[in-house]
């Protein structure tokens, strides 16, 4: 109970993939250690755990995303289907183990806010990259767009205030999920506390995908 009631110390870590804030992350749980983890998350009422991608030599990456369990269906054979949603980003401060699964002490990440002329430049960059993303999305075949919509939902609208969320605009994370990039690169973008830097990465990736 103590492990899960304090959501910065000894957080249970599911080592699998890169998850993002606001993006669904459905999971099929079959390993006994993760079945135990899910049961504890539900029993304590926190319904939250950390998700990190695997990293050789460390066990899991230095940055991850907290997931919240929306629903959990346990099958007769003990396996379970979990519908989870990304909530917030974090940096790993210390790694640990508990009953076969990884744990971590963490600190949460928030975007740095800007104002004045810096904000004006950021808003211009944001609108430009959003339009670039929309153009790329609309050029996809209808079949692929339908597949993306079923798995990730439709592309989120632009936020009126691009700094309203501590994670930045939702569409950025949606796009990163859809693009299915290398996990190391995904983790790099996840770790950025600058919306300007994140948009810069997205611009480069979109240019590459548009050309290819």
What's the arrangement of secondary structure elements?
Layout: H1 2-5, E1 11-15, E2 24-29, H2 32-44, E3 48-52, E4 63-74, E5 80-98, E6 101-108, H3 117-139, H4 142-152, H5 170-179, H6 183-191, H7 195-211
Parallel strand pairs: 1-3
Antiparallel strand pairs: 1-6, 2-5, 3-4, 4-5, 5-6
Helix pairs in contact: 3-7
Number of strands: 6
Which series of helices and strands comes N to C? HEEHEEEEHHHHH
The number of helical elements comes to: 7
- Please mark out the parts with pLDDT under 50 across 5 or more consecutive residues, or reply none: none
Please identify the structural class as seen in this structure: alpha+beta
Radius of gyration: 18 Å
- The outline comes out as globular
Q: Bin the helical content.
A: 40-55%
Strand fraction equals 25-35%
Average residue-wise pLDDT: 92
Rounded to the nearest angstrom, the distance between the terminal CA atoms is 50 Å
Main β sheet profile: 5 strands, mixed, barrel
User: Order of strands across the widest beta sheet?
Assistant: 1-3-4-5-6
């Amino acid at each position: 109970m103590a492990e899960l009631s304090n959501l910065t110390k000894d957080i249970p870590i599911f080592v699998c993939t890169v998850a993002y804030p606001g993006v669904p992350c459905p999971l099929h749980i079959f390993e006994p250690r993760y079945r135990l983890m899910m049961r504890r998350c539900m029993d304590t009422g926190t319904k939250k755990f950390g998700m990190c991608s695997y990293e050789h030599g460390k066990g899991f990456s230095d940055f991850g995303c907290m997931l919240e369990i929306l629903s959990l269906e346990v099958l007769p054979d003990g396996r379970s289907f979990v519908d989870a949603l990304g909530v917030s980003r974090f940096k790993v401060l210390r790694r640990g183990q508990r009953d076969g699964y990884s744990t971590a002490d963490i600190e949460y990440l928030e975007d740095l806010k800007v104002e004045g002329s810096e904000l004006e430049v950021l808003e211009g960059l944001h609108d430009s990259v959003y339009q670039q993303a929309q153009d790329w999305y609309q050029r996809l075949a209808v079949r692929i767009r339908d597949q993306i919509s079923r798995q990730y939902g439709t592309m989120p609208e632009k936020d009126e205030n691009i700094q309203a969320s501590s994670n930045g605009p939702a569409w950025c994370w949606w796009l990163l999920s859809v693009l299915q990039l290398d996990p190391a690169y995904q983790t790099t973008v996840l770790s950025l506390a600058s919306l300007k830097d994140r948009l810069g990465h997205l611009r480069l990736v979109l240019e590459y995908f548009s050309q290819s």
